[in-house]
Amino acid sequence: MTPSPGEGSGDLSIGRLAVCALGAATVVLVLATTVILVVKPGPVLGLVVGLLGVAGAIASMGYVSKRMTRNAYGDDPQDPEPGSGR
């Protein structure tokens, strides 16, 4: 049975989620390392590129994990309005 739009299949492997999120972070860190090795910037610019790589790795892990979770469990339900009794 296929899930309707907005609903997920409910099937999510924590191991697969971890491997995919860490893989995405690894790709970003490899790209940042490649930029540092190819461009050979000074110490300050190298530090900036490294910090941007770390921030990009964190962002890519969040993006991948959120996307996989939403594919598995569907979108978040709407928050109830204040005073709605729910």
Kindly report how far apart the N and C termini lie. Answer: 30 Å
Judging from the principal axes of the Cα atoms, what is the shape? elongated
Strand-and-helix sequence, N→C?
HH
Q: What's the alpha carbon Rg, rounded to whole Å? A: 19 Å
Helix content class: 55-70%
Distinct helical segment count: 2
Count all strands and give the number: 0
Report the major sheet: none
Could you write a compact summary of the structure shown?
The chain crosses the membrane at residues 17-38, 44-64. The chain has 86 residues and is an all-alpha fold.
List the SSEs and their pairings.
Elements: H1 14-39, H2 43-73
Helix pairs in contact: 1-2
What features would you describe in this structure?
By secondary structure, the chain is mainly alpha-helical. The protein has a domain at 14-71. Helices cover 66% and strands 0% of the residues. The protein has helices at residues 14-39, 43-73. The protein is elongated, with a radius of gyration of 19 Å. The model has no long low-confidence stretch (mean pLDDT 87). Keywords: Membrane, Transmembrane, Transmembrane helix. The chain crosses the membrane at residues 17-38, 44-64.
Main attributes?
single chain; 86 residues; mainly alpha; elongated; transmembrane; transmembrane helix
